[in-house]
Every structure is written in C-alpha cells, then in structure tokens.
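Human: I'm a chemist; would you kindly supply sequence and structure tokens for a protein?

Assistant:
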Amino acid sequence: MSLEEPERPPVAPVEPLPQFAADIEELDVDAPRVAILMGSESDMPAMEKAEQELTKRDILSEIRVMSAHRQPDVVADYARNAQLRGIRVIIAGAGLSAALPGVVAAHTELPVIGVPLTSRTSVAGGLDALLSISQMPPGVPVACVGVDNARNAAVLAARILGA
C-alpha cells in the first residue's frame, strides 16, 4: 500500500465570459491585489510586516484571520473566490501544523506564499511550521519563506506581480 497521495486534478482558473473579458481588463479599480491571511489574531504582529512592505510599494492588500482547522469552509470559500475579487497573490501565515497555506493552495490556482510562524508552543523555533509549509503534496504548490519572515513574502508577492 503506497503512502503517496493521488495527484489531484488541476483547479480550473476562473475566466470571465469572453464578451466581458476586455471590459474587465480595462477597469481601473482600487481592489486589493494581495491577500494576507493568518490563522489567529496572535499572528498579526508578524504578518503586519507583509502589509507594511506592500504599502511601501503601493500595492493594495487586505488582511483576514481565518483558521484552516476551525473554519475550513470559510478558508475554502475565500480561496475559491479570491481571483474573482481581483486578488493575484495570497500570503498565508500559520504556526504549529501550519495548515492554512496548503489548504488555501488546494482551493485556488493563485500563487500562495506560506509564512511559517513561531509561537510559544512551536517546536525548534518554528521548524514544525516550516516543514509543514514546505512539504506539500504534488500538485499543491506553496512557496515558503523563512520563519517569521512576512516581509520577504511581501517582496516575493511584489516580484510575482511585476511591481
């Protein structure tokens, strides 16, 4: 019996109807381009550094707190609808089992950047979260930055956006 997970079929990107695609591309809206997600309010001090870096680069972002374990439906709905709302990159920070980045990536085709976070119960200074985020199954990619390094996640998001 193999322990490998079967490959998931790719999630189809959401495309606007052809008759509206050009109109949508021409709209100049002040919608956030980067979503900053975290599993707990206690993650805010670390994750605010991503927002500060994006603001410095004039990239609009939004911050949301949602738990992959306590609110799995909320996380899935958010990830599925992010692209329709204008989001182009998702930064997701989490500690301990650090499931949030992977769960988000399972429900979107957008690039997801995981930020492993430390907490008072972290193992080896955040090694638990780092390994959880960096060891994703085939077909569910998550980029991973250093432990507590939300600023680097924002720099990577800016590079992905070409900003």
Remarks:
- Residues 44-56 form the longest helix (13 residues).
- The mean pLDDT is 89.
- The beta strands are 34-38, 61-65, 89-95, 112-117, 143-144.
- The chain has one domain: 31-161.
